[in-house]
Amino acid sequence: MTKLLRWLIVPSMKPRPVPILVGAAQFTQSKDAFPSLDPLGLMIRASRDAIADAGSDALPAIIDTVCVVNSFSRDDENTPHMLAKSLGVKPRDTIYSLIGGNTPQKLVNQFSRDIAAGRRRTVLISGAEAIYSLCRHSRGKAALDWPDNETLRQLREKDLKANFDTLLHLGCDHEKSILDTQGGKYDEPNNRVEEAYDLFMPQFMYPFFETALRSLSGRTPEEHRLCMGRSYERFSRIASQNPHAWSRRVLSAEDITLATPRNRSVVYPYTFRMVANINVDQSAALIMTSDQDAQKLGIDRSRWVYPMGGAELNNIWHVTQRPQLHDSPAITEASRLALKQAGLSLHDIGVFDLYSCFPSAVEISRRAIGIPEDDLRDLSVTGGLAYFGGPGNNYTMHAIVSVVNHIRHDSRLKAMVTANGWYNSKHAIGIYSAEPPDYPWEDHDVSAVQKAIDAEALPDPIERASGILTIEAFMIRYDQDGRPERATVIGRLQDGNRALADVRADIGDLRKLEGIELVGKTGEVRYDAALGRNVINLYPLAEP
Question: I need a surface site. Which of 80, 90, 109, 463 has the fewest CB within 10 A?
């Protein structure tokens, strides 16, 4: 069947609408902006630029959907309506998304199916964070002249300081209340045992993946540090050439991975410069429509970029129930499905943007997709979340905007974007090109694939463990001054069950752990009723 025939409906043979991106824009607010724009103001700025980018004065009149990506610094479901009103558009639907870094790519995939099926005509998607300005205000370093919003009210009423921990907890509480009202189900990111070890914040989960990957690679701790550094040095160089990047300083592998007073250890094996920087003021917007409407509006074909293929899948939801901590079946299957729809092979992709909240996220994606370790293709179009910036749930929209501009510059280019929510938990993949896909956007049922992934789930971890535990992964937390304060391991008991445990060690011993490969080592584990957690003894500790 030819590509043309695949896009026809039988028996009428009426051409199907083909979804395309016609408008794309992003904005990074200056660190010394005064007055600073609030998140809604940032969305208005990016959305107006995206409308102008499409080059049609008649486009706003056919926007029937305005969707806003969940914003930690303005967590208010009325935001899409306020955005539409500010832009002077009158959509049929206004949508406010749930939490998740996978969201922008998931929305592009969903709206592509809707446009192809005739359920929507033209969609504006926008998102923004102004966490940098909000945190400066919270620390008394800047005044805000912002319209009031739900997030500001919550911080004020609960007398809370603005930081990512606080904003994420508030966002999850708000999401639960929205889903309760709608009769939906909220999926707790942690199970009860994970909660007991304070593993809610993402920076406490991704180090487990990193140390599992290190063991799989066979590298020593020092070799792996340099490997992570070289990967992120490439990202730093990309960010240095990106006028929208929050940080444009070129950093070496040593600058990135060695702990110093200006680059403190956050959670082993990560320093401050290796984790997503959410303290940014950034916004982005996309406009999607059909090829038919774009043609009627006279939008120049050189502006058209096609979503060629996409898929969304989840890994086993709770980390401690995943058989392996170093892989992502969801990414493997979603990338396969997206490439199949696009009619492409991995070799055809010219550039990637792999979600980069932490180095382990990049490495897991690379392995899951099948990109060779020595591949010369860029794995980021922005510079990544550590250097470009990590504006909450909206980072991937910036990646898509960047991809659109790359393809407009080089019409032969094919790009793949990955988007990741929570702890390598929920994923969306998209492929983009100046050409339409081989197969149309349709409402495919991927439930069998999802069920196959979920079927591999392990039982819940043992809450009160006793016996010998073999370590599969570990992490070390540090205080604000970079001093180690607590280490936690994930491992298997002799009966094959999984368990978590804190390491019984003082500060000196915790320092020793930084140079030791703990994965594969064993220790005696017991439940400590006073702590409410298992504790593992690893003595004697070998010198690094």
Answer: 90
129: which strand partners? Answer: 282
Gap between the Cα atoms of 262 and 457, Å rounded: 41
SS3 of 38, please? coil
C-alpha 124/C-alpha 3 separation (Å) is 28
Q: In what order do the strands lie in the sheet with 351-353?
A: 306-314, 426-433, 415-421, 351-353
Q: What is the mean pLDDT of residues 293-299?
A: 98
Radius of gyration of the CA atoms of the chain, in A: 23
Whether the pLDDT of residue 543 is over 70: the answer is no
pLDDT of residue 541: 59
Element (H, E) at 112: helix 103-117
Whole-number average pLDDT of the chain: 95
Length of the chain in terms of residues written: 544
* HEC sequence for 441-463: CCCCCCHHHHHHHHCCCCCCCEC
Non-local (6+) Cβ contacts of 194 within 8 A are 318, 319, 320, 461, 500
* Token representation of residue 363: 């490495």
Strand partners, 73: none
Q: Is the peptide bond before 35 cis (omega within 30 degrees of 0)?
A: yes
pLDDT tens digits along 487-535: 999 999 999 999 999 999 998 899 999 999 999 999 999 999 999 999 9
Vertex 338: Cα angle to 432 and 236 (nearest 5) = 55
Cite the beta strand spans of 371-464 per DSSP E. 415-421, 426-433
Q: Report the C-alpha gap between 394 and 283 in whole angstroms.
A: 8
CA atoms of 358 and 46, how far apart (whole Å): 27
User: Which of 143-157, 291-305, 495-509 is least confident?
Assistant: 143-157
Q: What distance in Å separates the CA atoms of residue 275 and residue 287, rounded to the nearest whole number? A: 30
* 99, 70 contact by CB (below 8 A): yes
Q: Assign 9 a pLDDT band (cuts: 50, 70, 90).
A: very low
Angle at the Cα of 19 from the Cα atoms of 13 and 24, rounded to 5 degrees: 160
**Mean pLDDT throughout 136-165?**
90
Question: Which DSSP state fits 15?
Answer: B
What 3-state DSSP class applies to 60?
helix
How much is the pTM? 0.96
Burial 196-233 (b: 16+ CB within 10 A, else e): bbebbebbbbbbbbbbbbbbeeebebeebbebbbebbb
Q: How far is CA 116 from CA 94, 312, 369, in A?
A: 19, 18, 27
Nearest C-alpha neighbor of 306 from the set 34, 108, 132, 522: 108
Q: What stretches of 59-163 show up as alpha helix (H) in DSSP?
A: 79-87, 103-117, 131-138, 150-157
At residue 24, the 3 state secondary structure works out as strand
Evaluate if residue 6 carries a pLDDT over 70.
Answer: no
